[in-house]
Amino acid sequence: MITSMDRLSLNQITTKRLSVAEFVPACVSAGITSVGLWRDPVAENGLQATADLVRAAGLRVSSLCRGGFLTASDSSARAVALDDNRRAIDEAAVLGAPCLVMVVGGLPTGSRDLVGARQRVSDAIRELAPYAHDRNVRLALEPLHPMFCADRAVLSTLGQAIDMAEQFPVADVGVVVDTYHIWWDPDVWRQIARAGERIASFQVCDWLTPLPADVLLGRGLMGDGHIEFPPFVTAVDAAGYRGDIEVEIFNAEIWDRDPISVVASVVNRFRDVVIGQG
To answer: What is the domain-level CATH number for residue 108?
Structure first.
């Protein structure tokens, strides 16, 4: 059973207002030893400068967000997407991130061909996996809640993500277990056990109701919503996952709070609600 606070990783998006230069010392001050990074703020700070800053602070990088958006049917758009994902893989390698989180993309504008979109994702992963392998970066397929199927991710269940990942070597392609996206799935416990060593990332945040107008921002601090976290921790641990547990929250109200108080709340909720030491 996961009981160590050392497994806590704070995903950078949770404190969106903080620059990389502010985020890193805030995590260190709170006793957080691992961070999930995002490409845009890393680029703003400088890729190598960020890698140096994180390493000097003694932090691990649990993941880089994000790659993906691989469903374009137009050949030129597809080539652009593949090039961008190669750059993301290179960035993850410099940062020492063990995995690149892949939000695979939704339906192209005007398309209703869901089967074709999923096949294009599989084809793109087939092209990218050897490139990632050579740079010691694992592609982590993230299934998103079905409400995002049209515009963000044509992979909607953990089972679908595993089905696709299993086409490739386990060291090259894994899956993301994100409580927000899969908590509702009645098959989730069997799929987590099935995922086993395919689990490349474990992310947590809560499901809030009512959903906001922008449903992307409907995630909350653990304990503020409807998800029971200890069963997920137990299941992922039993499946053999030994990596970090990222707290990743998209929420405009939380982004408007004092970010240092948000960091403190994350630490407290992780201890009390996620691993149950409170």
So the answer is: 3.20.20.150
